[in-house]
Write a structure and sequence with these properties.
Blueprint (H helix, E strand, L loop, with lengths): L1 E4 L6 E4 L5 E4 L4 E4 L7 E13 L7 E6 L4 E4 L3 E6 L5 E8 L2 E5 L2 E5 L3 E6 L5 E5 L3 H4 L6 E7 H12 L1 E5 L8 E6 L4 H12 L3 E3 L9 E5 L1
Parallel strand pairs: 5-6, 15-18
Antiparallel strand pairs: 1-4, 2-3, 3-5, 4-5, 5-8, 6-7, 7-10, 8-9, 9-12, 10-11, 12-13, 14-16, 17-18
Length: 217
């Protein structure tokens, strides 16, 4: 079994033996065989990845998360986010079809659907998406399209390897739209401050801390 791992703030791209292409996001790990054998092409994901799966009607492609959820496909493109530290697993389908499986529950998905699975309650929610917000990371971009504030912070935390400390609930109902490429985290938050009044500041860091902390107040 081979293992591909990305450091915080970095992404990588790899090709599997069947021609499937995988973009691996920051702080993620993919385990996969050197060569697929048998009737199932199985890989294991911890973190987030975008899969462009090579079509093979005789051998389905299965991604398993560390918490046991599965996504089964034959040939399609989709994004899967399953960080062990998060309470949710999300799948965003762009082309083809997939089946999201958790325990005895399964849900068939269609293009431009996003499934959010709450690992605490077992609830699955599906909504429409254009996919830009969920997949722009693989092009080195951040795209927000009427994105809720807590989701914005989650995306920024992964991209810039920072920890947010939120002292207020006054932004909970806010949503943000914008696109960023090479901007630093301070520049992004300055845009949010100008457009929506979001107040923030860097926290003093000590030598033992590996991530920058930012307080939202």
């Amino acid at each position: 079994i081979l293992e591909a791992r990305t450091n915080p703030g970095m992404t990588t791209k790899l090709s599997l033996s069947d021609g499937t292409v995988v973009n691996l996001n920051s702080g993620s790990t993919l385990k996969y065989p050197n060569t697929f054998t048998g009737d199932v092409r199985s890989v294991q994901l911890e973190g987030e990845a975008f899969f462009d799966v090579a079509q093979d009607i005789h051998k389905k492609f299965v991604v398993t998360t560390t918490d046991g959820q599965k996504v089964e496909v034959h040939g399609t493109s989709f994004n899967l986010e399953a960080f062990p530290t998060d309470s949710i697993t999300t799948t965003t389908l762009l082309t083809g079809s997939v089946t999201f499986i958790s325990g005895d529950h399964a849900c068939n998905m269609f293009p431009f659907q996003k499934l959010v699975y709450d690992r605490r309650t077992g609830r699955m929610t599906i909504r429409h998406t254009e996919g830009d917000t969920e997949t722009s990371w693989k092009e080195g971009k951040i795209v927000f399209n009427d994105t809720p504030f807590n989701e914005v912070l989650r995306v920024l935390s992964k991209r810039y390897n920072v920890q947010f400390i939120v002292d207020t609930k006054k932004y909970d109902d806010d949503a943000f739209t914008g696109s960023f490429t090479t901007q630093q985290i301070g520049q992004v938050l300055t845009v949010f401050k100008a457009s929506s009044g979001v107040r923030w500041k860097y926290e003093e860091a000590n030598e033992l801390e590996k991530v920058q902390r930012i307080r939202i107040y």
